[in-house]
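Quick one:
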Amino acid sequence: FFIHHAQTDRLWTLWQGRNKTRLSDYGGNTVQNQFVNTASLSDKLSYMGLAEDRTVESLMDTLSNGLCYKYDDEE
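Output:
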């Protein structure tokens, strides 16, 4: 589970790094099997009390907003 999600995050970060305008690319549906594009950067991500809830936009850049990590093979 964790390896899968870490790899997904790494690939997303590498994809973003190839074009900085991709830092704000986000969209699609938010409910499985519903094909209405409702996803937005202002969507809230709930940490269910474990941490402060965040917006998608605040987590798009791994080098800002408290994330501050980089993968070894990033360009």
